[in-house]
Design a protein that fits this description.
alpha/beta, Rossmann fold, pyruvate-formate lyase- activating enzyme, 3 domains, 25 helices, 30% helix, 12% strand
Length: 753
């Protein structure tokens, strides 16, 4: 198998490790008693996770655990350990090869905190949704404790938390730029993105005795090296200005300034280059030289100290990072951390090569128990309940939405399972999952309808540097055929014992309108009354910073949705999602969105405030107030950013204009914006002038219309009316609390739309 010119070894071609003779465990062991029952004297690999252990392919730890088991390794699990000491990290003894450490399916900070930095009251990935079962920045804490337990055992970190922190990044919760997670965790290796290839090869090489410090050629891995280190004499280092020039940097000397050429022999004045004969090179020879040189060139990003101190360089580094994300042409990246003698480099190899359909089938076809570990008894685990009857049919997303981290983690190339594999898993659910009633709750992934979509030309795909295949318009090279997905839907419905197949993942509607047949199939058979869709906004300003299509695409989809619902004789509704306070959004943009919502009869219940997650392009906008979607300079486009808590609350209030608790804040804002004409009792007004009793602040205007039968209130004298009202005693401010976003459906992740 190869992508572009890069050949890879299939996952199933490795010779199994000798421990394969122990067979398949009913569950990966979480105790020494379970190990004894399996006949193990030790584990080869121990996985440490912040989630409850659910043996299901939707949970990354279970997926890689079963994959390593299929390679013959004895894999144990330490789930949600007590991190206050190293004792719990010795639960299964010392692993023979390495510790694999993950925070779980969600980033630990996003899992624990809301977008307003408030602590959540529950954790969907914990038995009985109990809170406080994992630490903040879990990967770092678990790594420190594992190192304390067994100092000589290699540490390998991964999952979305480590993946999104592989270089210096803005951290919303501490409001500062933090170092790469590698120097914080002291891990030997970080595996980012889809980890299957790197993990399998790493395990086999370690089993053969190769030191982990010498394994430096695995794609999709990052590690610390001495400053200036290169893999070999044929490698070269290039400055990130070769990818994109940041321009002059204010307040700091330009680290990219070109040095004057030294004078050679002769009479040329100082700083003037000597003349040389230039040989003409054919285009084919030039391209071959460029391709060979590119494969052994690493791009040096601005250092941690530089991006920490200068927003322009941070935005430039973000742009460079995303331009080097296509596995077909990405180069290695380097970023220095520290100064003087302590200076070291974080080295990132190019991203992993996506799995083929056959490899995806292998990974999802492993012998999962498809249930939580028996140790949890009858405890309720909300994340498991959400996905127990769902099926992941693909991974990756080429939408490139700037606020989403899926492309930074899973990549833009869609990896799809075969039709046979999907249908087999439906039968597995039907036959083996307790409580199944005949309804599959989802066939999807990060997006519902990107199944089997790919670039029409593999050569174009491997050389493309676009950040999105669908923005500002759908690329003419993108195959948007929905026929394979329609076929899966139809065959799945026909399986015995299957009553209904629902689609719960977010839908990319700008793709869907390209296939009326797909929309009809979806609306007629797979919508359970409501369909999630994510326009995110109506105004061009924020949409351009999100890389989302205009509201016109939504209108076209809604027309098709309503038409086919009527033809099917069904009353069905679209449930739109919108983001408040996204970079590039002004108060006027939110007002226009509120007016659009009222005009279309939407009264949103759940709304989302923008959460800056590490590495996302929108996070770079939020931190730097620059736009990394274009060339970044000190004078380049400024991005409007909503930082203050009051303004973030206002933007959220516009989305819930119908909630009386928000009316006082909205009245104040509308008056300040010169839009008092939107306050009143008519249909053309956004909010009324009166305030219901028992809501919001007591200083809001009262209803002026007299109530029938009510006694008139005594009027104050003119003198009393002029007398100032004593101020109420100030209430003490609550202690500052921190953090992010409600756990979403692990398959949908709110990406589609």
């Amino acid at each position: 198998m190869a992508i572009g010119s890069v050949a890879v070894k299939p996952l199933t071609s490795w010779r199994p490790y000798w421990a394969k003779r122990f067979g398949t465990a009913p569950f990966l062991p979480m105790s020494r008693a379970e190990m004894d029952k399996l006949g193990w004297d030790e584990c080869d690999i121990i996985l440490i996770t912040g989630d409850a252990y659910i043996d299901h392919p939707s949970f990354g730890m279970a997926l890689v655990g079963r994959l390593l088991e299929a390679q013959g390794f004895r894999v144990g699990v330490i789930s949600q350990p007590d991190w206050h000491s190293a004792d719990d990290f010795r639960r299964l003894g010392k692993p023979k090869l390495f510790f694999g450490i993950t925070a779980g399916n969600m980033d630990s900070m996003v899992n624990r905190y809301t977008s307003d930095r408030k602590i959540r009251s529950d954790d969907a990935y914990t038995p009985n949704a109990a809170p406080d079962r994992r630490p903040d920045r879990a990967v770092i804490v678990y790594s420190q404790r594992a190192r304390e337990a067994y100092p000589e055992v290699p540490l390998v970190i991964g999952s979305i938390e480590a993946s999104l922190r592989r270089i210096a990044h803005y951290d919303y919760w501490s409001d500062k730029v933090r170092r790469s997670i590698l120097p914080h965790s002291k891990a030997d290796l970080l595996i980012f993105g889809n980890a299957e290839r790197a993990l399998v090869e790493l395990a086999h090489r370690l089993a053969k005795g190769e030191p982990i410090g010498e394994i430096r050629d695995l794609r999709g891995t990052a590690f610390m090296v001495p400053h200036g280190w290169l893999p070999g004499p044929d490698w070269a280092e290039a400055d990130s200005t070769t990818v994109d020039t940041p321009g002059a940097v204010h307040a700091h000397p330009d680290p990219y300034a070109m040095q004057a050429t030294k004078v050679g022999a002769g009479d040329e004045p100082k700083g003037v280059q000597s003349q040389a004969i230039v040989r003409l090179v054919s285009r084919a020879e030039r391209l071959a030289q460029h391709k060979a040189a590119r494969a052994h060139t690493a791009i040096r990003l601005p250092s941690y100290e530089q991006v920490r101190d200068d927003p322009v360089l941070y935005a430039h580094a973000s742009r460079t990072f995303h331009l080097e994300s296509n596995p077909g042409n990405a180069r290695a990246l380097i970023q220095a951390h520290g100064e003087g003698a302590a200076r070291r480099d974080v080295w990132l190899n190019p991203p992993p090569i996506p799995l083929s359909t056959e490899e995806m089938d292998h990974v999802f076809g492993l012998p999962y128990a498809r249930a939580p570990h028996p140790a949890y008894g009858d405890a309720r685990i909300p994340a498991w309940e959400m996905i127990r009857f769902s099926i992941n049919i693909m991974r990756g997303c080429f939408g490139g939405c700037t606020f989403c981290s899926i492309t930074e983690h899973e990549g833009r190339i869609i990896q799809s399972r075969s039709e046979a594999s999907i249908l087999h898993e439906i039968e597995e659910i039907r036959d083996k999952t307790p409580g199944f009633t005949g309804v599959i709750s989802d066939l999807g992934g990060p997006t519902a309808n990107m199944y089997r979509m790919a670039c029409k030309d593999p050569q174009i795909e491997s050389s493309c540097r676009r950040l999105s295949c669908v923005y500002p318009d759908i690329c003419p090279n993108m195959n948007t055929d929905h026929a394979p997905l329609i076929s899966v839907y139809r065959k799945a419905r026909q399986l015995p014992g299957i009553k209904k197949i629902q689609i719960s993942s977010g839908l990319r509607y700008d793709l869907a309108v390209r296939s009326p047949e797909y929309v009809k199939e979806l609306v007629t058979h797979h919508v359970g009354g409501y369909l999630k869709i994510a326009p995110e906004h109506t105004q061009e300003g924020p949409l351009s910073k999100m890389m989302k299509p205009g509201i016109g695409a939504y209108d076209r989809f809604k027309q098709m949705f309503d038409k086919f619902s009527k033809e099917a004789g069904k009353e069905q509704y679209l449930i739109p999602y919108f983001i408040a306070a996204h970079p590039g959004t002004t108060d006027e943009d939110m007002l226009e969105l509120a007016l659009w919502l009222k005009k279309n009869g939407f009264r949103l219940d759940q709304v989302q405030t923008f959460l800056p997650t590490p590495l996302a392009i929108a996070t770079a906008m939020w931190h730097t107030e620059k736009n990394p979607l274009r060339k970044v300079t000190a004078d380049s486009e400024a991005v409007a950013v909503v930082r203050g808590g009051r303004q973030r609350k206002l933007h959220k209030a516009f989305l819930r204009y119908h909630d009386a608790e928000n009316w006082p804040l909205l009245r104040e804002a509308l008056k300040a914006m010169g839009r008092s004409d939107l306050i009143g009792p008519g249909k053309r007004h956004l909010i009324p002038a009166w305030q219901p009793a028992g809501t919001a602040c007591s200083t809001a205007p009262r209803r002026t219309t007299p109530i029938a039968g009510a006694k008139p209130r005594p009027q104050k004298s003119a003198q009393a009316a002029r007398r100032p009202t004593p101020a109420a005693p100030a209430k003490p401010s609550p202690p500052a609390r921190r953090h992010p976003d409600v756990p979403r459906h692990p398959l949908s992740r709110r990406k589609g739309g």
